[in-house]
Amino acid sequence: MHTPTYAPAYLAAELRLPTNGLDYAILGIYFAVVLGIGFAARRSVKTSLDFFLSGRSLPAWITGLAFISANLAATEILGMAANSAQYGAYTVHWYWIGAIPAMVFLGLVMMPFYYGSKVRSVPEFLLLRFDKGAHLLSSILFAFAAILIAGVNLYALAIVVQALLGWPQWVAIVVAGFFVLAYITLGGLSSAIYNEVLQFFVILAALIPIVVLSLKKVGGWDGLTHKLTATHGHDFTTAWGGTGIGHANPLGANWLTIVLGLGFVLSFGYWTTNFAEVQRALSAKNLSAAQRTPLIAAFPKIFIVFLVMIPGLAAAALVPKIGTSGSGLQYNDAIPYLMQELLPNGVLGIAVTGLLAAFMAGMAANVSSFNTVFTTDIWAKYVVKDREDSYYVRFGRLITAIGVLASVGTAFLASSFSNIMSYLQTLFSFFNVPMFVVFIVGMFWKRASMKSGFWGLLAGTTAAMVNYFVLYKKDIIHLPSDQGANFVSAIAGFVAGAVVMVAVSLFTKPKPERELQGLVYGTRSPGLSEPPAPGDAAWYRRPALLGWGAVVLAALCYIPFSF
């Protein structure tokens, strides 16, 4: 999941980094490697399945790292560090409650439905389970959301590069857009995935020196907690302090809304139906690898929180008034400030490259999922049907270019919002949560009728938007923060979608049971009868063991932050 509300997203101009030729050389090498991967992947693209799903041929460790890298956009890196500088250890909730359980659920419960049905996209599953109405509406909503979110990544990149390197915003947007367009157009999803694996390690190489040097600067973990307790109070370094029902806290959410709004509705809505993530698992070579994809990703997700939270906490300790007019720094400036203060040249180049890699990973994930949904779910099914396979590969490349150009446009749209993180979180409550309720009801209730999918999706999206734009923005109901409003919008969308689906199902015909095989829990499809791969008895090839191990480890990580 991504980050909640905090101070405006513009970075301070005085954070210009003292980069030199060595730093720019590292950046140039990275861009050259990115394009090289695109050219290398081009040779493997012979069919539309190769272009859109890597021919379903990739091993689990590749798809698992790509899965986590696609989520680890720089909007998350900068935003979660900013979140930590403002709210403290509350940030762990977005990982151990707001990600790990949903990722495990995706691997253990939902991937057998997705992969076993041999669908090419998440909306295509709705076509099999419901009807064309639900399929077309979900395809349009997802394509629209993917372009908006890709634009957010582009705009966030632009403001960071402008502040740190002095490039004009439009130059950063055009340059990043060009490189993403080049390597996805060349090699399709394979190019995006292999670049995401590279980007994962580049991002780690950027964050680890910042964490180590910032901890050293504040006197280690004990020195950090001592300083923060003195300046921000004891609750700042705990995960649950001040979240009792009826208690006020800066987050504007109590433990119940954290668990239900973030931990269930927003989290499951994002991780289980967001095709930008699920697409990585669908490209795996078999069902076992597809199930292990989100589970493998869950393990680094447990620990990545420390890489983004500790810099935010260190910034709050070093600049106690960060985020106020007295410091000259916004919460968003936490990581750029530490980069400026702590990193020598060379390491600085790696850190800047890591930020650019993170932005490009987030944008590429959305663009590659957009071109798949638009080509296979909209164009091939409703506009130009039954053409030769090579036509859809060519069209996929064309719509990739159109998608990148549209993302450039929505990047400038994002610039009209004072807080792009709040904007991003709002998009998730509008688009991901209603789709999740349609999936979850359809997967676990045979009686859910074909028509209920369309009306449930429409009702959920409408309810979330009405809650946010009418009830919250017009102050009909008072909510303490935009993030609190997003939690409530997500819950409203989930409840409205579920109620409407049940009501419509009671008055319309269900789908014939023979057509529900492999689409509803308790049924089985031919796609799930594949023999196990050699060595599947090994512990690391058992999805259930990996999944529950991730949950237990995440739960144990809470212990140091609970008191």
UniProtKB/TrEMBL annotation:
One of its GO terms (cellular component) is plasma membrane. Its main location: membrane. The chain crosses the membrane at residues 24-41, 61-82, 94-115, 136-161, 167-186, 198-215, 253-273, 294-319, 347-374, 395-417, 423-445, 452-472, 484-507, 544-561. It comes from the Bacteria. GO terms for molecular function: D-glucose:sodium symporter activity. It is a multi-pass membrane protein. It holds the Pfam family SSF. Keywords: Membrane, Transmembrane, Transmembrane helix. It is found in: Membrane. Belongs to the sodium:solute symporter (SSF) (TC 2.A.21) family. This is Sodium:solute symporter family protein. It comes from Streptomyces mexicanus.
